[in-house]
Amino acid sequence: MGNVLKCKFCDEVATVHLTQIINNKIHKVDLCENCAQNKGVSDSEGYSLAEMLMQTNIPADQDELQAQCQSCGYGTSDFRRTGRMGCSECYTTFEPLLEPILEDMHSGLKHIGKVPAFALNRQSFLTQMNNLKVSLARAIESEAYEEAAQYRDKIQALESELQKEKSSSS
């Protein structure tokens, strides 16, 4: 098991982990829930999501009319003040406020996963190869030799393709 991270301000277990990049340097802050709430979920510079929301260019009165969560009644002013959602439906309600902020924070608005493409390709290759080998074994067992030869050829083609990829990436 990994090391338990402690809060930067007290010795409680850290449950909030913030990462901010300032001048191409990564700053990480680990906080317990109480310190995170006391700091407005901020890093060591005191910067919080609530402060970021206060800086958006939408006029407050127009903003108030546009967004109030139908599920929990949370309004735009509540969201701007706390930087937190009242319920899961708030994400849909406050989407117009969140999109510009997320665009500034991330390279896109959709999560595309953390698995590198080469790893997905490798996994796909291994699955396909395993399926072919199982099919080959079954064909041999049932004495379907023509079918087994087709599976053998497919396996050889995949292995050949893998060798070509390895030699071209070297």
Word description of this protein:
This protein is 54% helix and 8% strand. Strand 1 (16-22) and strand 2 (25-31) form a beta hairpin. By secondary structure, the chain is mainly alpha-helical. Mean pLDDT is 77; it is low at 57-65. It folds into 3 domains: 1-47, Wheat Germ Agglutinin (Isolectin 2), domain 1 (2-Layer Sandwich), CATH 3.30.60; 48-109, no CATH class; 117-169. The protein is built from 8 helices and 2 strands. The chain has helices spanning 33-38, 49-54, 60-66, 76-82, 90-93, 95-105, 117-141, 145-169, and strands at 16-22, 25-31. The protein starts with 15 loop residues before the first strand and ends with a helix. Strands 1-2 form a two-stranded antiparallel sheet.
Q: How would you sum up this structure in a few lines?
A:
The protein has helices at residues 33-38, 49-54, 60-66, 76-82, 90-93, 95-105, 117-141, 145-169, and strands at 16-22, 25-31. It is mainly α. Strand 1 (16-22) and strand 2 (25-31) form a beta hairpin.
